[in-house]
Amino acid sequence: DLQICQHRAPTCCTKKMEESYQAAVRRERTQSIQALNFELKYMIVGHITAFQEAFESLLRFAENRTSSLFETAYRPMAKEAAEPVKELFTDISLYILGAETTVESAVLRFFDSLFPLVYSRLINPGITDLSEDYTECLRLTRQDINPFGHYSKNMVTELSKSLWASRMLSQALSLGIEVINTTEHAAVSKECSRALVKMQYCPHCQGLTLIRPCVGYCLNVMRGCLASVAELDAQWRQFISTLEYLTSEMAASHELEMALSGIWSSINEAVLHAQLNGPQLSATVDKVCGQPKQQEGNLSSASIVPVKEVAETQTFVMAHTSLNNKRREFINYMKRSRTFYASIAERLCDGDLVMRDSSTCWNGEDVV
Fold it and tell me: Which GO terms describe its cellular component (predicted)?
């Protein structure tokens, strides 16, 4: 009553053994593909981790640099500016990790929060009544009177160009892991499991436990079983090309590292611009929001403190170098995996599964 290992000679198998063999080949095929995928997946996961660590390091550096700008140059508002600064960098981090947000909304939200502070602490430091209504009016007025000039829009443009590629790369790497995981758990068809049993276990039914499949026979069986996985070849090659494009975009003129390290400079220029145009801004705000309460004698506007570019710190240089090296190392590895899905049958028929050094092997029907 055998269904798969039918043979004219006497057999030592039963139908129940054939069913056990089918369960075994399904398990073995999954394990074999997992073993092949392991190195590729390990490399991608490792790069995702390294990329995120280097990115977080750059982000922390840029945030600390921005906070120190307020503490040294704009001390009257430093304490209150801490929260908007923190929110800005949190939003940037979430954007790169794929959150449903935009760089523009993050930057403009930051400048909306910053304007009431700049207006009440630097331009008109005598204001005592900064009520919620007045603060909200200042926030809304910011969008109309554009107190920060072109600097806020420039910051959006620069960050959008550099962060876009990083966001896409982060999403692409996650997609790569998803694809690999899916191939590991692809269902084994009934025809495939029967073919694998015939190839790997039917010799056992004749007592031929040391005979292994012929190479050509193995390739035919594996190609048939992995036809759906091999169909990924064209898309996988395209995926590798996309990774190459994204990594080159990240290393191009609008580099992530440079854009992040330049945030403090853009904010500094924006605040200076608002201070220089303080009288005009005050006149417009008074018309729109009314005149707030002032201290007696009205303090003079905070003095403008231009901040010079500080030298790059070692932390930034190390994170920058680390990210560049990881990027190059990763893309070189991924280029070598370009034919991964096209050659998966050959790789599974390599090693101990088939008979290579002997002229005697199993062809599915007999020993040849």
Answer: cell surface; extracellular region; plasma membrane; side of membrane
